[in-house]
Structures are given as structure tokens and as C-alpha cells.
Amino acid sequence: MKNNGIARKLLSAPYIVWAAIFIIVPLGMVFYYGLTDKTGAFTLENIAAIMSAEHAKALWISLGLSLISTVICFFLAYPLAMILANMNVSQHSFIVLIFILPMWMNFLLRTLAWQTLLEKTGVINNVLSFLHLPALNIINTPYAIVLGMVYNFLPFMVLPIYNSLVKIDPNVVNAAKDLGANGIQTFFKITLPLSVPGIISGITMVFIPALTTFVISKLLGGSKILLIGNVIEEEFTQAGNWHLGSGLSIVLMIFIIVNMVVSAIFDKDGEGSFL
Amino acid sequence: MKKISVLAICLAAVFSFMGCDGSPSGENGEVIVYNWGEYLDPETIELFEEETGIKVIYDEFETNEIMYPKVEAGASEYDVICPSDYMIQKMLENDLLAELNFDNLPNAKANIGAQYWEQSKEFDPENKYSVPYCWGTVGILYNKTMVDDAVDSWNILWNEKYKDNILMQDSVRDAFMVGLKLNGYSMNSTNTEELETAKNSLIQQKPFVQAYVVDQVRDKMIGNEAAIGVIYSGEAIYTQRENPDLEYVIPKEGTNVWIDSWVISKNAPNKENGEKFIDFMCRPEIALMNFNFITYSTPNDAARELIEDEDIRNSPIAFPDLSQYDNLETFQYLGEEADRIYNDLWKEVKSE
After folding, report:
1. Of A14, A222, A241, which is closest to B210 when you measure between CB atoms?
2. Pseudo-torsion of CA B265, B266, B270, B276, nearest 10°?
3. Domain boundaries for CATH 3.40.190.10 within chain B
4. Cβ contacts (< 8 Å) between A238 and chain B: which residues?
5. Residue A54: its chain B contacts at CB < 8 A?
């Protein structure tokens, strides 16, 4: 037993070192920069800066677009996850693979590909004009940003829901049917409530990356729509004001933490930890 | 026990990777170069390494603003860097550059044209710290098949006819240069009213803009994705090669004449090798290779003489006669406070 304990500690060492260097230290630096000004004195100004018209607007748009994307993802993902869960084993692992496969490709490349598809002279519009159909002009609009978010983050919604659906004991569903519930009643009284943990982790895993993205709005929004992620990115790379960038990041973290607390309450079994 | 041995193997693997970090340097040491992306013919590096036995460690940046904090923090030590005019001024003010020993730079002295040394004095008053590498203007690139108005002024970018067909630069100073010049002001203005006017012009322009981009202007213009774009003259020659319908114009209200120059950082670990590298880049045939590769105008007169194609050698895009234009300016570093004002106003434009 004793030996086991030492081995366990040894095995956890790399993770602890990793977490300290790549999570704790950077987080500490974000807080240090966010709560100080250029002279190093303590200030809350960088956090209060979220109230300024431009920042508040950027945050508002980010919240709106990521919420819309999350809702769309949910309505696309749930039926798909149900279909997957009802397939036999050999088929569904293949379909899941097809779903995960694009994620092996770089996220930036996939987003750039959408730019090429959606452009005025892009692939989709060439096909449409060949068929004498009206052109699709959504590139550099919020629609393109939502499309990019849904496309990129949909697998993160499908997989946790699928995970929680396959864990539902079929006998529970059968019992409901035996007791006279019809299909719709079974779905709303049995399947849906039992899959809530998966839904919650799916929402977390779509909403958070969508809220913080800056690449999608840059590539598909033509940098015309300023999201809070873009504001923070530009404070670091263009304006060179790390203090303000960190302060706004802390504000964003509050939203993320709220989201994660909610998900922790519902998802006690860690259904979302499918990866 | 088994677990521990697995762990040992993992750790060994990690450490052996770390070991690779200290890659062997050349027989005559090394030089660490920090340059713009796609701003040099890679073959010239190989030639330099072959001839001198100095290993080149090459790193790239996308904007001056990204480069600056890395050099300032000193987290990575660079020898040779290639910043733009106003950034050199800022680095000088913050004591980040080393004085060059021009005895080690005979090619630079002999080949770089006098007018470029003169122009460099705007940011390096005694020509002690920088050697010009590339220069150019910023202007309007337009597609002759899509634009039927005469293009000679920035105000074409405010023409509603070209709504959704205009590409603007997605960087503070470049965007405000256009806004300030349109209104007849200096692009180095720190006057609040002038900046406010420029900001309002840019906000007014926003509905007509298809996208704010940096390097992508090139590809989008080649692909006929937009009719008009703001672009660096060095990219213009390349785009014309790919799409003959494109034409480049320096607007009559004036524009930005910029220089990117080689400098050596104060804490350079290999200063002498750095000077050897800069001097090598100033050799006529090497400068010509770079010009052919990146198509940005070279200040190297000897290299320009070697250009075989007469149209390129006398191209008004690559080598414009600057005396023909009024109100040409070079960016100056305006100080932290002005930087902050510019950034805040730009944010207002972007969030509109």
C-alpha cells in the first residue's frame, strides 16, 4: 500500500508541474496585470473599463452571438445524438469518428476554408450563379460569424449529449412504455431529463469558446464586428496595453466561471469529460 | 514498479527533447534574425551560412507592435531586427538599439542610395543605428474592370458606388493615415480635433468597407473579391504579376513613405555576426535576389542597376519619383499618450 502511495504521487507529479507552469502562473500574471496600472500600483480601472461604451457593446454582441450559436447547436445536436445513440455499436462508432475527424484538422484552416467558400467569388456563389440562383452574401456579416461558431463547436455539443443518452438504461424507457406513456411523453419525462447533464456540459463547451473567440470574427466577419475577444487580442498585439487586456480578460472569466458553476451543479458524474 | 519505469522513460524522453534545444551552432557561431514574414529570399540565408559558417536562427513577426514587446522584455535575445521607421525611433528612445560599426558594413556604405540615408534621418538623426532594407509607399490598388471613375484621391474610398468592394488596412496608424490625409492633415497629427475629424471620416466610411484586413488585401484583390484596396507598394507589383487588371496609384493628398531598416539590438549576443549578416544583405546580387523574391522596393542602388527588366527598373510603383508628389511623410513615434489616443479612437471606429 505504501509503495502504491509513492507511485501515485510520482505519477501525478508531471501533471502538477504542468498545471503550475501553464495554468497557475499565467493566471497569476493575468490577475497581476489586470489589477495594476503601468506604474505597478493597484487599480480597478482595467476592470471597470468594461463599462465604457465600446467594451460594453463588444461584450454584449459576443454574448448575443454565442448564445444564438449555442441554441442552434443544441437543436442540431440533440436529434443527431439520439440517432447516434439508437444505432448499433459498429455503425455508431463509425459515425462518431466521422464527426471527430474534422477536429483533427487545424481550427484556423477550417475557418479559412469557410472564408473561401462564402466569399463573393467563392465556391458557393460560383455554384449558385451556375444554377442561376441569387448570390449568398453573408461573408463579413454576423450571420457568417454565427455559421463559423456553429460549424466549429457543434461536435462539442453532440458528443456530451450522445454520451449521456447511451448511458440511459433502456429498461427505464421500456418501463415508461409499459406504463402507457406514448413516444412524446417518454421523451419529455424520461429521456430529456436524464440527458440534462450532457446538455449542460454541451452548452458550456460551446458557449465558452464562442464567447471568447476572436479568430472567427476576424476571418468571417472581416474585422467589422468587434467582439470582446477581438478587443482583448488587440490590446495585447496592437495597442500594447497588457493591463487593460488582462483586466477585460478577468471580466470575461467571471462569465466563464458562472457558466462552469452551473454546469458543475448539473453534471456531477462528469459526463462532459468524454475526451 | 512497472509504472515507475514507464515514468522514467517518459521523463527521459522529455529531457532528451529539451536537450535538442541547444542545437549545434555553426563553426563560426550564430546570428539570430527577427524579420517580417515573407520578407527575404530564404536562399540568401543558405548562401550566407555557406560562405561564413555562421548559423542563422530566423524568426518572423507580423507587425511592429508584436515585435516590440518581445524585444523590450528581453525574453528572447535577437541580434538583427528589421523594424519600420517610427518603431526604430521608439526603440532608440527606449535605448534598445546598439550603435553600428560602419567599418564592418562596407557594402551598406557603398550601395545604399544617399536619398535613403537622408530619409532615415527622420528617425535615426545621425545614421548610426540603422541600415535601410526596403522602402515604399502606401496607396490605392484598384481593379480597372470594376472601377470606372478616375482614381487619384483617397476620396474614392468614400464613394458609395463601391460599397462592399473596398478593403481597408486593419491597423491603427495605417487606417488613420488615410483618414487624416483625406482631410488634408499630417499623418503624424496629435491634434485632438484633427484626429476626431479623421475618426468621423473613418466611421462614415465603414458601411462601404467590405473588410478590414492586413496581408489579405493582396489575395483578395488578385481574386477579384474587391474593387479597391489600400495596400503597400511592394505588394502591388506582385499583385499585378498575378492579375494584370490591377493598377496602383499614389493619391494626390499625399501618403506614407516608409522605410524598414536593419538594426542590432542592444543586448545582441552576436553583434559582429549581426553586422556581417546586414552587410551580406547589402551586396548588390543578394539585394537583387531579395527584391525579385519579395518585390518590395530596394534602397540598394547597385542592386537596382542589376535589374534586367527595364520596366521594373524604372517602374513608377517600385521606384517612384517622390519629388512629383506633395505631402509625403514618414511615420513618427508619437509617444505613449498619443498611442493611447489613437488606439481609443480606432476602437470607436471598429465598434461602430
Report:
1. A222
2. 60
3. 26-135+259-320, 136-257+325-351
4. 63, 65, 171-172, 343
5. 347-348, 350-351
- In a mutational test of the B interface, the residue from A112, A223, A230, A248 whose CB has the highest number of chain B CBs within 10 Å is A223
Q: Tens of pLDDT along B207-252? A: 999 999 988 899 999 999 999 999 999 999 999 999 999 999 999 9
Interface probe with A: pick from B174, B339, B351, most Cβ of A within 10 Å: B351
Which of B17, B169, B347 is the mutation pick for testing A, counting most A CBs within 10 A?
B347
Rounded to two decimals, the ipTM of the complex is 0.86
Residue labelled with grid coordinates 541580434: B79
- Name the CATH code of domain B26-135+259-320 (choices 3.90.480.20, 1.10.3900.10, 1.10.443.10, 3.40.190.10): 3.40.190.10
Yes or no, beta carbons of B171 and A238 under 8 Å apart = yes
Decide if B69 touches A, using CB distance below 8 A: yes
CB contact under 8 A, B7 and A240: no
B172 touches chain A (CB under 8 A): yes
How many of the other CB atoms lie within 10 Å of CB of A90?
7
* Cβ proximity of B280 and B43 under 8 Å: no
Q: Do A224 and B206 touch (CB under 8 A)?
A: yes
Q: Say how many Å lie between the first and final Cα of chain B, rounded.
A: 64
User: Consecutive 10-residue runs of chain B (352 residues): their mean pLDDT?
Assistant: 43 43 68 94 96 95 87 86 95 95 96 94 95 96 96 96 95 94 96 97 96 92 96 93 95 96 95 96 96 94 93 91 90 92 94 88
Is A224 domain-assigned?
yes
Q: Residue A3's pLDDT is what?
A: 62
- Please report whether residue A37 resides in a domain: no
Instruction: Assess whether pLDDT exceeds 90 at residue A89.
Output: no
Q: Name chain A contacts of B166, Cβ cutoff 8 Å.
A: none
Q: The domain B136-257+325-351 belongs to what CATH superfamily?
A: Periplasmic binding protein-like II (3.40.190.10)
Contact state of A234 with B69 under an 8 Å Cβ cutoff: no
Q: How far apart are the first and last CA of chain A?
A: 30
pLDDT for res B279 = 97
Task: Please report, for residues B28, B148, B234, B286, the alpha-carbon distance to residue B241 in angstroms, rounded to integers and kept in the order given.
Answer: 40, 22, 12, 22
Number of structural domains found in chain A: 1
Residues B22 and B212: their CA atoms lie apart, in Å, by: 41
Single-letter residue type at A18: W
User: Which CATH number do you get for residue A164?
Assistant: 1.10.3720.10
From residue B160, give the alpha-carbon distance in Å to each of A135, B164, B166, B231. Answer: 21, 9, 10, 20
What pTM, to 2 d.p., does this model score?
Answer: 0.86
Interface touch B211/A223, C-beta < 8 Å: yes
Residue A231: which domain range? 50-266
Does a structural domain hold residue A19?
no
Q: Is residue A129 part of a domain?
A: yes
- Answer yes or no: do B210 and A140 touch at CB < 8 A: yes
